[in-house]
Write a structure and sequence with these properties.
Largest sheet of chain A: 5 strands, parallel
CATH superfamily of chain A: HUPs
CATH architecture of chain A: 3-Layer(aba) Sandwich
Radius of gyration of chain A: 17 Å
CATH class of chain B: Alpha Beta
Radius of gyration of chain B: 16 Å
Strand order of the largest sheet of chain B: 3-2-1-4-5
Oligomer: heterodimer
Number of domains of chain A: 1
Number of helices of chain A: 4
Number of strands of chain A: 5
Largest sheet of chain B: 5 strands, parallel
CATH superfamily of chain B: HUPs
CATH class of chain A: Alpha Beta
Strand content of chain A: 15-25%
CATH topology of chain B: Rossmann fold
Structural class of chain A: alpha/beta
CATH architecture of chain B: 3-Layer(aba) Sandwich
Structural class of chain B: alpha/beta
Helix content of chain B: 40-55%
Number of domains of chain B: 1
Order of helices and strands of chain B: EHEHEHEHE
Shape of chain B: globular
Largest interface: A-B, 31 and 31 residues
Number of helices of chain B: 4
Chain lengths: 154, 149
């Protein structure tokens, strides 16, 4: 459908993912929305790199090796998700950032001039279902744009 | 491809609700979905001061109801002017519980609501109503900050 004036400002949807089941549901929801609104999808993942310790069972080189493997998997998976969306006729790309998840998500929303963030309420961190995921909670409060939260399955 | 079929917009008539209403209208148009406008009135506290006759509480209550219904009707006609199918729902109770209940009852697949985004330190607190709705809602929740966009 043609984008009219009221929709012209919903041009870009940012979708943070940690590849959890919850964020997969958010991605599905975002794809539906993007398809309806003709918006571009920007999939973003935040790599969390623990400090590199030189002591203990792992040395820096080994720790670095683990991060490299993780990064490769992330890059491949981001590519897979966006290619699948592109194959379905959507405009989609991915962004990889490193740091504290909620800060990087808010930063990416600002930098990419996202008009909407679509994310799961619960990602990989935290087990307590009674609590709103701390990442989603902070993003809702600090994002420069509206946020759609999608709850994980029952 | 279908997106949202039934959108619920809870409003407390505050300025914090206005950007969320605009978004809800835009989405309702885009999805050709009907919009349910909900206002949850929390009855005024019965403790209105010593010596006040009991009838004055009932007066206050009916005044509050009349005023809330009138404001809800104003929002409804504003939405209808935008040619969006809409209905108004007026209930009394605790906002978060009633919003969740109304979402289930109307089988809403999106709740579009404002957050009381204040500035300064209180910006760090998501409104308690929005927080509970985001946490417990079965359907996606669109939260729209009060500060524009």
């Amino acid at each position: 459908m043609a984008a009219d004036q009221t929709l012209g400002d919903l041009a870009r949807i940012l979708v943070p993912t940690d590849f959890s089941a919850g964020s997969e549901r958010a991605w599905t929801e975002a794809r539906r929305l993007a398809s309806r609104l003709g918006a571009e999808l920007v999939l973003v993942h935040v790599l969390v790199e623990a400090p590199l310790y030189s002591e203990g069972p792992f040395n820096i080189k080994q720790t670095r090796g683990v991060f490299d493997v993780a990064r490769k998997w992330v890059v491949k998976t981001l590519g897979d998700w966006t290619s699948a969306a592109a194959a379905a006729g959507l405009s989609a790309r991915w962004v990889l950032r490193t740091g504290v998840p909620y800060k990087e998500i808010v930063g990416a929303a600002t930098h990419e001039r996202a008009d909407l963030v679509v994310m799961g309420t619960h990602g990989r961190g935290g087990l307590d279902r009674a609590l709103l995921g701390s990442v989603a909670d902070r993003v809702i409060r600090l994002a420069p744009c509206p946020v759609v939260t999608v709850r994980g399955t029952e | 491809m279908a997106t949202f079929r039934r959108i619920l917009h809870p409003t407390d008539f505050s300025r914090a609700s206005a950007p969320a209403l605009r978004r809800a209208i835009a989405l309702a148009k885009a999805c050709r979905a009907p919009l349910a406008l909900l206002h949850v009135m929390t009855p005024p506290s019965p403790f209105i001061g010593e010596g006040a006759p009991p009838s004055s509480y009932l007066d206050l209550l009916s005044l509050a109801r009349r005023s809330a219904r009138r404001r809800l009707a104003a929002v409804l006609s504003r939405v209808k002017r935008e040619r969006v199918r809409a209905k108004a729902i007026f209930v009394e109770g605790l906002p978060a519980s009633e919003i969740l209940r109304a979402a289930r009852r109307t089988r809403a697949d999106l709740i579009a609501m404002g957050t009381h985004g204040r500035t300064g330190v209180s910006r760090l607190f998501l409104g308690s109503v929005a927080e509970r709705v985001v946490r417990e809602s079965r359907c996606p929740v669109l939260t729209v900050p009060a500060h524009g966009r």
